Amino acid sequence: MIPDRVTLVEVGPRDGLQNEKQPVDTAVKIDLVHRLQAAGLREIEVTSYVSPKWVPQMADNAQVMAGVYRKAGNRYSVLVPNMLGLQAALAGGDATRPDEVVVFGAASQAFSRRNINCSIEESIERFAPVVAAAREAGLKVRSAISCALGCPYQGEVTPDEVEHLVKLFKQIGVHHCGVADTIGVGTPRKVQAVMERALKHYPVQEVSGHFHDTYGQALANIYACLELGIHTFDTSVAGLGGCPYAKGATGNVATEDVVFMLQGMGIDTGIDLDALVDAGGFISGVLGRPPVSRAGKALLTK
Ligand code: HMG
Ligand code: MG
């Protein structure tokens, strides 16, 4: 039942950097993407086309996309919150065109309002034409369902609330269902209960987990997903990450830690751990702090 291959979607350039207070140079962001793909990551969330007033760090989205040397067969994705974002993502033609867009909603009303300034229902109304236009343009569309395991404002979130949003995204034509533990409060059995709801509506290859590691549960939660056959996870190099609108949320599970665990289990990721650790060392050096990744830290100081 445990998969023998796992796909990691590297979200460090987007989720990892969006919360950084100091502006990170565009050249550094591009360099990071290059290092990640050199390490073998084939799916990379590069940036987001959100309002620069809301998330100033992502304001150089088009420049970053234009600067990335694309490797054939890789998938480069960007977040889009509305039609303006999709139009901006497509405005530069082939030079900046993503392969995939991510529409992001929340299982809790309170977080939806804080993060994208509208209710869950309004967000679906807003996303429906975005998804249709993205599909028309030949892009893959992924969802991110924030607060699937708990909300910093509402508290408990039920599997029913998560399934409600899974169904709404499915109805508007979203290809892939991303289940996100924004504040890292999920634990393995709860994660399985929520993932089972997603698996009722999407095939296993179109369901993924996105675990912030605030309470140190992310690796256990990934293992719990593996037990269900889920084999796609978002991870962030050096454990960077956080959402500016999720109070107390820390970084995503570190790509290095996940690769270390999977390699130890004999599960193929196609990723060169040494090159990945170097990429983590590079971005941590730029940000002026050690990697949050335990495996990254251990291997860098070995
Ligand atoms: P709003 O203020 O309600 O939007 O924000 P609006 O439509 O009223 O527009 C206000 C202004 O923003 C206008 O400009 C628009 O042109 C501009 P003005 O006339 O004032 O000069 N604008 C835009 N500019 C550039 N790109 C756009 C865009 N849209 C409007 N796409 C909005 C609504 C959704 C835009 C805003 O709330 C927003 O950008 N939110 C994004 C927040 C965000 O990026 N959060 C982090 C990513 S999600 C995340 O991290 C969670 C995830 O990792 C999973 C997990 O862990 O849970 C995915
Ligand atoms: Mg996130």
UniProtKB/TrEMBL annotation:
PANTHER family: HYDROXYMETHYLGLUTARYL-COA LYASE. This is hydroxymethylglutaryl-CoA lyase. The keyword Lyase applies. Coiled coil: none annotated. It comes from Pseudaquabacterium pictum. SUPFAM superfamilies: Aldolase (SSF51569). One of its GO terms (molecular function) is metal ion binding. Pathway: Metabolic intermediate metabolism; (S)-3-hydroxy-3-methylglutaryl-CoA degradation; acetoacetate from (S)-3-hydroxy-3-methylglutaryl-CoA: step 1/1. PROSITE patterns: HMG_COA_LYASE (PS01062), PYR_CT (PS50991). Its EC number is 4.1.3.4. Residues 6-277 form the Pyruvate carboxyltransferase domain. GO terms for biological process: ketone body biosynthetic process; L-leucine catabolic process. The lineage of its organism: Bacteria, Pseudomonadati, Pseudomonadota, Betaproteobacteria, Burkholderiales. It catalyses: (3S)-3-hydroxy-3-methylglutaryl-CoA = acetoacetate + acetyl-CoA. Belongs to the HMG-CoA lyase family. The keyword Nucleus does not apply. Keywords: Lyase, Metal-binding.
